[in-house]
Amino acid sequence: MKSEESSNIGTWTVPEYMKDKFEPGQYGIIRVGKDNRAKKNLKVGQNKLESGVYAIVKIISNSKKK
User: Fold this and answer.
1) Residue 21's CB: how many other CB atoms inside 10 A?
2) 23 within a domain of the structure (yes/no)
3) Which element (helix H / strand E) includes 3?
4) How high is the pLDDT of residue 2?
5) Cβ distance 53 to 30 under 8 Å?
6) C-alpha distances in angstroms, 40 versus 29, 44, 45, 46, 48?
7) What is the secondary structure of 6-66 as a DSSP string?
8) Could you tell me if residue 63 is inside a domain?
9) What's the confidence (pLDDT) of residue 26?
10) HSE of 51 in the Cβ direction (CA atoms, 13 Å)?
11) Number of domains observed in the structure of the chain
12) 1 is a domain residue
């Protein structure tokens, strides 16, 4: 990534018990363990994710209720 201006902003959910552990300005990772989703739960043409680190992220807002 060249700069913050070129980054993508995504929305992620976290478990309720972890919602107060994140603050704007903190960094973290998006990590995938074993993808146990059944084939019927994947979108058409989508494959299961391979295990690994997918992104280094910066928290930009406090958690919000859905």
Assistant:
1) 10
2) yes
3) none
4) 45
5) yes
6) 28, 9, 11, 10, 11
7) G---------GGGGGG--TT-EEEEEE------GGGSPTTPPPPPSEEEEEEE--S-----
8) no
9) 94
10) 3
11) 1
12) no
Q: Could you tell me if residue 66 is inside a domain?
A: no
- Region 44-62: mean pLDDT is 87
Which tens digits make up the pLDDT trace of 32-47?
888 888 988 888 888 8
Task: Take residue 48 and report the two structure tokens written for it.
Answer: 């299961």
Distance in Å from the first CA to the final CA of the chain: 30
- The residue segments making up the domain with residue 51 are 7-58
Q: What angle do CA 49, 45, 57 make, to 5 degrees?
A: 35
pLDDT in tens, 11-26: 777 788 888 888 999 9
Q: For the chain, what's the residue count?
A: 66
